[in-house]
Specification:
The protein has a single domain (10-318), classed as Thiamin diphosphate (ThDP)-binding fold, Pyr/PP domains (Rossmann fold, 3-Layer(aba) Sandwich). Strand 2, helix 6 and strand 3 (172-178) form a beta-alpha-beta unit. The chain is α/β, with parallel strands linked by helices and 327 residues long. The model has no long low-confidence stretch (mean pLDDT 94). It is 44% helix and 8% strand. It contains twelve helices and five strands. The N and C termini lie far apart (48 Å). Helix 2 runs parallel beside helix 9.
Length: 327
């Protein structure tokens, strides 16, 4: 382990904070706007989990590919998908990332290496295997990263993907973002193993568990796995133990959570608060540095929602576009 509590440059720290803060403000605003009834479809928020997505994505290149989940906004933003396009997509507008046809659960941007969020549990794992296999054949040093929740870790397609990745010895990283509940059932009730790292060992691949609320712990562990994969070391599994501030989906009554639990985690287990404390205590960044970023993000989010609400919707002529690909 690195003894330096903030082993990144000033510019890297600013980038990491901007990434996490953008995700947080995006999700908090979506929470408010969804309650108005203007956003179509289901929404699953990533607020509280920002250190995982940011810590991993800070180690990735543009040509690395990721697959996401139904809770994919944070992964999209961290991978570099344009925020205004994402907001327009949530509103189903023609200038959205997927021209208004994907919505919250199916945002994709192949140019940025974002292969897509996915409403099917564990379905992104085979996609990441495909990307990693392509990288192995092309010998370009890129990696495929699959994000999934603790509930999806029980899905057959995920376990099959672990086996494929191990057999093929491909540069794939499987990230289990363990928020403890799957949808509304405690992982202690529904999962036989104590740690998801045990799943990795069953397929002969290394695995590590980290505090998913600690950006630096995630960043370091992910960096080691990704560098190993780039050098031909094969697949790995990273378990990030974390929390989510909101329910499984917007509208979830969260009756499965304990009294005062959400208030306690917001107060004591907020990954953004932890990051701010770490960097300011180490005098790597000042509160003034962070306040300036906060103001810029506030402007961006306000502009994104204002523009999206006034953007045009897809027309009848757009129905059959983006359905088939021609070579």
């Amino acid at each position: 382990m690195n003894d330096n509590p903030v082993p990144l440059s000033r510019d890297e720290l600013l980038r990491a904070y901007r990434m996490m803060k953008t995700i947080r403000e995006f999700e908090e605003r979506v929470h408010v706007e969804f309650a108005t009834g203007d956003l179509p479809g289901f929404v699953h928020l990533y607020a509280g989990e920002e250190a995982s997505g940011a810590g991993i994505m800070m180690n990735l290149r543009k040509d690395d590919n990721i697959s996401s989940t139904h809770r994919g906004h944070g992964h999209c933003i961290a991978k570099g998908v344009e925020v205004k396009g994402m907001v327009a997509e949530l509103y189903g507008r023609s200038n959205g990332t997927c021209h208004g046809k994907g919505g919250s659960m199916h945002i994709a941007d192949l140019d940025m290496g974002m292969m897509g969020a996915n409403g099917i549990l564990g379905a992104g794992a085979p996609l990441a295997c495909g990307a990693a296999l392509a990288s192995k054949y092309k010998k370009d040093g890129s990696v495929g990263v699959s994000f999934l929740g603790d509930g999806a870790s029980n899905a057959g397609n995920f376990l099959e993907s672990l086996n494929l990745a191990a057999v093929w010895e491909i540069p794939a990283i499987f990230v289990v973002e363990n928020n403890g509940y799957a949808q509304s059932t405690s992982r202690d009730y529904a999962v036989a193993v104590d740690s998801y790292v045990d799943r990795a060992s069953g397929f002969g691949m290394p695995g590590v568990t980290v505090d998913g609320t600690d950006f630096f712990a995630v960043h370091e562990a992910a960096g080691e796995m990704i560098n190993r994969a780039r050098k031909g070391g094969g697949p790995s599994l990273l378990e990030c133990n974390m929390i989510r501030f909101y329910g499984h989906f917007e509208g979830d009554a969260q009756t499965y959570r304990g009294l005062g639990e959400v208030e306690e985690i917001r107060k004591n287990r907020d990954c953004l608060k932890k990051f701010i404390q770490q960097v300011t205590h180490a005098e790597a960044l000042t509160h003034s540095d962070l306040d300036g970023i906060d103001q810029e993000i506030s402007v961006l989010i306000n502009e994104a929602f204002d523009e999206a609400q006034n953007a045009p919707r897809p027309t009848e002529a757009d129905l059959l576009t983006d359905v088939y690909i021609s070579y």
